[in-house]
Amino acid sequence: MKTPVMEMKSVSKHFAMTAALSKVSLALYPGEVHALVGENGAGKSTLIKIMTGIHRATEGEILLDGDPVTIQNTQQAQALGVAAIYQEPMVFPDLDVAENIFISHRDLGPFVKWRDMYDNARDIIRTLGVTLDVDIPASGLTLAEQQTVEIARAISLKVRVLIMDEPTASLSAHEVTQLMNVVRTLREQGVAILYISHRLEEVFEIADRVTVLRDGQHISTNPIADVTSDGLIRDMVGREIDDFFGKRTKRTRQDVLLSVRGLTKENVFTDINFDIHRGEVLCFAGLIGARRTDVGLALFGIEPADRGEVSFEGQPVEITTPEQAIALGIAYSSEDRRKLGLAMSMSITANASLPTLRKYLSGLGLIHRSDESAMAESYRQKLNIRTPSIHTTVGTLSGGNQQKVMLSKWLNVKPKLLIFDEPTRGIDVGAKAEVHQIVNELAAEGVAVIVISSDLPEVLAMADRILVMREGQQMGIFDAEDATQENIMSLATGQTTLAAAG
Amino acid sequence: MNLVRAAAAKLRSWEGFLLLILIITVIGNAIQSPVFLTVGNQINLFQLSIEKIIVALMMTLIIINAEIDLSVASMMGLSACAFGWLFLHGIPVPLAMIAAILVGTLGGAFNAFWITRVGIPSLVVTLAMLIGFRGLARVLVEDRGITGFPEWFDAMGQQPIIGPFPLALLIFFALLILLIVVLHFSAFGRYVYVIGNNAQMARYSGVDILRVKSILFIASGTVAALAGLLFAARVGAVRGDVALGFELDIITIVLLGGVSIFGGSGSIFGVLLSILIVLNLRNGMALANITGHLQTGVIGSLLILSVLIPNIRQRIRDALERYQAAR
Amino acid sequence: MDISKLHPQLLRVLALLFVLVLVVLFFSVVVDNYLNARLFNRVSTSVAIIAMIAVGQTLVVLTRNIDLSVGSIVGFTAYFVGQLLADHGDLHPLLAVLAAVGVGGVLGAFNGVLVAYGRVPAIIVTLGTLALFRTMLVEYADAGSITTIMLPPWLLELPRTNIFSIGRLDFRLTVGIALVVVLIFHLMLTRLRFGRRLYAVGSNPEAAVVAGIPSQHVVFFAFVLCGALAGLAGFMFLAKFGNITVVAGLGLELRSVAAVVVGGVNIFGGSGTIFGVLLGAVLVDLIDNSLIRWAAISEFWRDALLGMLILLAVATDTVVLRQLNRLRRHRATKLTDQSTEPAAESRQ
What we know:
The complex is a heterotrimer of chains A (502), B (327) and C (348). By secondary structure, chain A is an alpha/beta fold. In chain A, 35% of the residues lie in helices and 24% in strands. In chain A, helix 16 (429-444) links the parallel strand 17 and strand 18 (448-452). The longest helix of chain A has 16 residues, at 173-188. In chain B, the strands form two sheets. Chain B has a two-stranded antiparallel sheet. In chain B, helix 4 (50-64) runs parallel beside helix 9. The relative contact order of chain B is 0.17. Chain C has 13 helices and two strands; from the N terminus they run H-H-H-H-H-H-E-E-H-H-H-H-H-H-H. Chains B and C meet through helix 7, helix 13 and helix 15 of B and helix 5, helix 11 and helix 13 of C.
């Protein structure tokens, strides 16, 4: 067999105390599409970041054409012929397609030869087998077209290893087909492609070999012909989750709190229908790009839907601002703690009291510091937030403790409905179990909880019912006892319809 | 115990650094001139820049909110000129004063409209109005100088009214206390910080961002107009170039006080220290026969240094961390 | 015709031309004998100076920065070169120009170092150097001023030198020089890789880093060039006015920003054309010069109007761009929808 273009030999990466990656080996051959699959947090992104020079491996070595190399930064990775394309393309919106492709070239001299550049750009685009005008500005391109531009840029830089990280997450079905054709063309040209995707149907369509990662460990590498979809899912899920979380006890169903009919937002999601009862945990399952968060944001009034009816406690409501949602008793805890969840440079107290600051005001509009601190202190004890003091800046806490601060902030609203987006993303196992416990207690107190999670074991452990979404469509609702990881996955990946999965 | 540690940390912070500079400046000045530490000289020192420091207090809130108002000095000019114009046209002085302050409120609301409703960044809006408000001021008085205000009006700006304190200084202290309370003890102040820190997050927490920003710009316009009137009263005359270029000094004072240009951090106390430093520095330079222009140059350099030094400090810290991590 | 398919910059230049014609028409109705050779001569010579500063400002704004110190740079170089020529009357004209450009470039480099490598926001740096450079001028002038009698005759002749005349329309040498500068920088921005990188850095700074563009150097040189152009403008300023005091060039920073923004350069960088900026400078100056001659309204309205003009220009940009993007996205989704259907059918 040929020598691999790029080979990772028992590479490990530690962040502080936790191992994100331990002794993973992977070989990429020219003209091969190598799929990399695994759950969120399995270590895929860490591996990519090591390959592109963003992170450096703690242990292990990287070989290029059989010679060991160290990759210090992205420029060096580029020079070695390693490039990556992410979900969110990085283009220059004001420059046209051809310039976007050639702007970073260093060897073309000081003058821009527009005609040559357009010709070369057209050639590259043509070799990709797509049609795209090279003289229109990138700001007018669709996401898929922007991705094509990035791929073209990589090719123009003589890429030998192309990493594609969830490239299809936000693409429509037709655009995915187009991208698949591009990938095939690249393979024929001898490029080694590392293809990361949650969508197994794509993996089966395009990959030559597939590697499964789980919890930072290499589980298996097999030719695609030797694996089945069930086998892959089993490898990805792996561990016995039941010991871990403990299955929910079935509760008696109370009255309907929120009912949603035909909720639609143009080009985002269509015809979402569900009821959620008091004391119920309803999980939204699906892949990245399934638009679950958008439904949550619509219910919370950040990005209101265009059509559809929502009724809350039996009354029809139209929620257009977060203030209104909070006043009704709806809370939304964001998946993006850093950008949308917490003020990182402010104290635990200030973060916890933000949505409910009015509760702590004296007649003159001044903040009752002692009441506010007492509240923060009570949540610190109740949720077991590990911190020297409630005046500590949130940014210095661990992910799990930050998540608990965010929970305090929303629990203090005394919500009737809590929309909890990715409750355990980026937090350690212990904190995960605690967060689950809190959600259970909330449900026991009669709070309705919508959990949006990409972590299937978590969904199965927490949910009373599970709503599966795919590309803005509601694929079906399961009762927890009918659900398995396999049938959720096959709905979410679009391999079956509800009838077949049931 | 915690308080002691907090106090120690404070001393090592920017505020501590400012305090040190202040002490050095004051000692230097006191050695240079025996009259420096007299109450009269200290009040005089405030009095000479009183309008700027009043506006700087309000600007503190705007910059903590991660916005900027470059139009304040032009608004000072506009309100003074509006007052002069009304006075010339026979409007009674008290009425003209109220109208001049209303001009500030309206001007602030005008800024707020373009910033919050149209969505143009405050830097651009207030840069345009730096030109626009000044232009309106010139339209009103053209190249005249308007004087001959009633004696009580001029006296308001020049004579002490309570003890040794003139009105403007009392207004400064009142505003200082008011803004300390608002910024550091009220819900509104908390929102100002949170929005400056992370505006998107504030929106996701149900904070009405546009309302907070609107209030700030309207207040900024109003305070600037008030300061413009005080200037007119102190000088006893109004011209088209009242307060020309003051925005530079005002913003410098705020940034020097440790308020981050990117918003979210800083305090009125830091700005108060910075006010004291700038006033003493200017006074000291005047005592040492350094001209006003050179003083402006020194202030300009201080402005750059107040951002550059923390940047360099941060970069050294990062480099050290990387070095330690590499080992 | 589908407006959304037109290049936004072309649209902007057309709109500016339209507004220019409107302004001219308006004033020729309200002002007697408005359109004459004097108007042309006056506007063209005054645009010659502001256009050069605006071109420099454009380079900086394209990279998502701003230079508020250009007025002070103009003042300082005008005085500096004036003093140089007063002391050495036999200095070669070219050397005098080079000195102006060099001094301006050095001052620009000072800004550039602090912004690009010191990572201090441009608005802070240049607000500071706006004061600092002016102070340098005051110190250097030491309460003196430059007057025409101190200057060599060739310099005083320069602004009155014509390249050619058509009837009473004079094409001055200074206008010619300015046009050459405009053309050179137009070519730089459209033909040179460096010019294109100015756009790239302002268009998406994060992507610029990922794509391996040396953003810091690009920003630094933008400031150097901006300073150098302000220096050249300082030389022209000296030639035009002959009398230079410490307030020379005061307020030019705002006029240049106005010309740039009205000329369609996005204040957040990444887009804009030199020709648009030239038109912006002409429009701003034309309104100034016309107001002076309109008896119905005080000439003092010019700054108030300028402020509104900037605001309206940016507001139009913001709103129109938002609409254009919405249109485009709409078109894009419609396109994919159409093409999805047959694909879906074929799968079944």
